[in-house]
User: Fold this.
Amino acid sequence: GQQVMQIPQYQHVQEGEDFTTYCNSSTTLSNIQWYKQRPGGHPVFLIQLVKSGEVKKQKRLTFQFGEAKKNSSLHITATQTTDVGTYFCAGRLTMSNDMRFGAGTRLTVKP
Amino acid sequence: DTGVSQNPRHKITKRGQNVTFRCDPISEHNRLYWYRQTLGQGPEFLTYFQNEAQLEKSRLLSDRFSAERPKGSFSTLEIQRTEQGDSAMYLCASSFADFSRGPTGELFFGEGSRLTVL
Assistant:
């Protein structure tokens, strides 16, 4: 089963509003990756975080990795209709080489 | 096209039949992953290869599932005696792991093979 938990499951926002999705693991992660999957598409890599407390930005997207390397968040400022899709976090557990995905947060944006 | 290629894209089969999916990864990638995804869920890890070696396999994976990567290039995933619960999208992903630089590289996914078991 999923070892990486993600909330919320769904988020519906008005265009221009902000959006945040959270990812939590019961065990320490070596790294965390974020992916976006458009409806009918396949997951596409957004970013990887490796260091404790790391923060990375991509235009309107801000990614954080927790100090304990057990949680992460993705924040989108001023959402646009092009942001629609499902956002997944994927974590690599220590002592493992596979990436475990969360269940995803499905974002819909009303114009 | 130099991306990850999967075929067939769609497969409809009757319960009890065997099916095989093929994945051609990006040529310079040394790691290959198989995931299964059902509607509304994230990709569920099945197994992964580093070159031709199968290094990890999900404990949840039935013995009916087997995967190979004989020459460290393409991979096949076979499901024997399919059941209706096997209906899902089967995703293949590849990555390049540079051991000198540490953690897993980004995963490049294929378009997936959708299996429907009647």
The interface with chain A takes residues 31, 33, 35, 40-45, 48, 50, 55-56, 60, 91, 93, 97, 102-104, 106-112 of chain B (CB under 8 Å). Chain B has a mean pLDDT of 91. The two ends of chain B are 33 Å apart (CA to CA).
